[in-house]
Amino acid sequence: MDQESSCMKMSRHFPLNAMRVFEAAARHMSFTRAGAELGLTQTAVSYQIKLLEDTLGEQLFLRQPRQVSLTDAGLRLAPKVTEAFAILQDAVTGLKDTSEGTLTIHSTATFASRWLARHLGTFQLENPGIAVRLETSQEVIDFSKTEADLAIRSGKGVWPGLKAHLLMRSHFTPMLSPQLAETIGGIETPADLLKLRIIDPNDPWWRMWFEAAGLPDADLAGRPASRFGVQAFEAAAAIAGNGVAILMPEFYADDVALGRLVQPFDLTANDGTDYYLVYPEARRNSRKIRVFRDFMHKMLPPIPE
């Protein structure tokens, strides 16, 4: 039998629980105190020690009335077992420290670029012990298959097995560059938007907004069906004067202030989906997740019912 096969066989059959009991009993020199530490009865401790002795073919303890003592074999084994469990403890502690020291966030590209990225610096200043790794994706990740602590996703807030916290309402409205608006003498009514190129006319948000604006029959057919897939890219095209985009104005307040975009109407619409912070229910007590959740609630304005 080669060494690897021998190790695999030992890992399957070696009584590690009994070894833990032996380590505690050797340290306390008492089956009773070892049992109290491990939550076992004295009988269970005796059983585990006997199991280990049978496996090794060596007697490890001398049983005497009201006390036990280590045999020569036990004396040789005890310090090595204590060292081995210390190494295991260090490995687990190191893994936990590394895990708790890095927060991996998955987010939609738009939320990451238009809101999250500008606030992560503040989060890290307030929490210097937590490093942040930000991943962006339009796909809804599976936490069981993707390395992530939490995600920011758009939806209705109901995902089985996940805890969801509402972050931001997804209100949307048309936005365009002021220069493009000037090409038709300004935007006075919602119908004026139809005189210009619409970025992604197949986006269902357009139909919803025009219906809310009193134009349920707005003609969007026959227009170039450009599709950027990411709201941030559509905003970039609108800033460049390439058409009218339908956007979440909360993300583009800076562009409005700088004169790169205008929001011609106060009217916004909502399709029932909003932005949520989500993470597995089983990880709700993770300190780094709790700290980031509290930070997000602090930075975002309260959401009215």
UniProtKB/TrEMBL annotation:
One example of a Gene Ontology biological process annotation: DNA-templated transcription
Pfam families: HTH_1, LysR_substrate
Residue ranges constituting the HTH lysR-type domain according to the UniProt record: 14-71
Keyword hit for Nucleus: no
Matches recorded under InterPro entries: LysR-type_TF_proteobact-type, LysR_HTH_N, LysR_subst-bd, WH-like_DNA-bd_sf, WH_DNA-bd_sf
Family according to the record: Belongs to the LysR transcriptional regulatory family.
Name of the protein described by the UniProt record: LysR family transcriptional regulator
